[in-house]
Design brief:
The strands form 4 sheets. A 6-stranded mixed sheet has the order 2-1-3-12-4-13, sandwiched between helices. It has 2 domains: about 160 residues, Bordetella uptake gene, domain 1 (D-Maltodextrin-Binding Protein, domain 2, 3-Layer(aba) Sandwich), CATH 3.40.190; about 170 residues, D-Maltodextrin-Binding Protein, domain 2, CATH 3.40.190. The relative contact order is 0.17. By secondary structure, the protein is an alpha/beta fold. The radius of gyration is 21 Å and the shape is globular. α2 links the parallel β1 and β2. The chain has 14 helices and 13 strands.
Length: about 350
């Protein structure tokens, strides 16, 4: 009898059901997604009833962590992948292993990216901005805001190079320090990091936002920063709506970057998904939990479970041959990025 109880105890403590959940964050500790993951995990644990461990898998352009989840880690039913904006941009323009269509959504925050500018910037000064794959939407927005509606990628690339210094090779910490010192006069952050690093900076002010993706594929003004959506500022400056060769590529890449920047994924058929969806839903309905999150991130809607899958499908509808080719061409000419055209992503193929 003693041996039977011992065997049962071993089986009980060895079962994966009692293992901690793990959030895979594809960047170093202290990054914007890492900060968000810790904020959410702290509140989610209260409803999940189990510990959540954050595991960082950094690497070039934050691709290795998601590739690791796709190739091996998703087999563990207690592993949850946290995607972020850089993953969305890379999915569109680089060769990666992961594919959002192959996973199930647990939930996501439907977020925005906020750009700040130094108060000592004067109209006509050259914009100095840190480069990076995750910054591609900012680059396309800046090109349109500074240059108006142009007819060709060549014109935009020339205008961008004339008006913007695109500074390569900076880490997140270096970028924030350079902006604080005035070596950069423009910056961008996710909402939680913007509150921490830019909103608190007396030398900085709000520049522009990208808006919030809606179910019908449109973008609404960010209620946390009203009046600063790119389209609003463009029309205010140029007296017309953005209607140019870059705009569809901009809408595509900003939507993927912002719409998937803080999303939680598990493998299809994961036996824990229903429990995860149920407890995440409970967290978003708990006034104390949601207040704690909003205090640090802002008031953004949660999209949970199958609604998260529908959100992903809406993003895929933006993928067109023209938008993809424009994105790759402008990346190459203006940013010097080694982008690749991926026709396999075109909606319906």
């Amino acid at each position: 009898m003693r041996k039977i109880f011992l065997a049962l105890a071993v089986m009980l403590f060895a079962t994966p059901a009692l293992a901690d959940y793990t959030l895979i964050v594809p960047q170093k500790p202290g990054g914007g997604t890492s900060v968000w993951a810790q904020i959410v995990a702290t509140e989610w644990e209260k409803h999940l009833g189990e510990k959540i461990v954050i595991r960082h898998i950094p690497g070039a352009r934050d691709i290795p962590g998601f590739n690791a989840f796709h190739n091996e880690l998703q087999k563990d039913p207690k592993i949850i992948m946290v995607s972020h904006g850089g993953n969305g941009v890379s999915f569109l323009q680089e060769k990666v292993d992961y594919n959002y269509a192959e996973y199930d959504s647990v939930g996501l925050m439907n977020l925005d990216i906020i750009s700040g500018i130094r108060k000592d910037y004067k109209a006509g000064d050259k914009i100095k901005f840190a480069a990076g794959s995750g910054m591609v939407p900012e680059g396309l927005a800046i090109a349109q805001l500074l240059c108006g509606n142009l007819k060709s990628i060549d014109e935009y690339a020339a205008c961008f190079k004339d008006k913007v210094t695109w500074v390569p090779g900076m880490s997140g910490g270096q970028r924030r320090l350079a902006f604080k010192r005035g070596e950069l006069n423009g910056t961008r952050e996710n909402p939680a990091a913007y509150k921490k690093h830019v909103e608190s900076n007396p030398d900085a002010t709000l520049w522009f936002t990208h808006g919030i993706l809606q179910k019908d594929g449109s973008h609404a003004d960010d209620p946390n920063y009203p009046g600063y959506q790119f389209e609003i500022l463009f029309e205010k400056r140029w007296g017309e709506k953005p209607d140019n060769v870059l705009y569809p590529a901009y809408k595509l890449v900003k939507s993927f970057r912002d719409g998937l920047q803080k999303a939680l994924w598990v493998s299809k058929g994961n036996p824990n998904r229903d429990h995860l969806v149920k407890t995440l839903t409970a967290m978003t309905r708990d006034l104390d939990s949601i207040s704690a999150i909003q205090k640090k991130v802002g008031e953004y809607d949660w999209v949970i479970g199958n609604a998260g899958n529908a959100h992903r499908d809406t993003l895929m509808s933006f993928v067109t041959e023209s938008a993809l080719k424009t994105l790759v061409d402008f990346n190459t000419q203006a940013f010097g990025l080694k982008s690749v055209y991926k026709p396999e992503l075109i909606h319906g193929k």
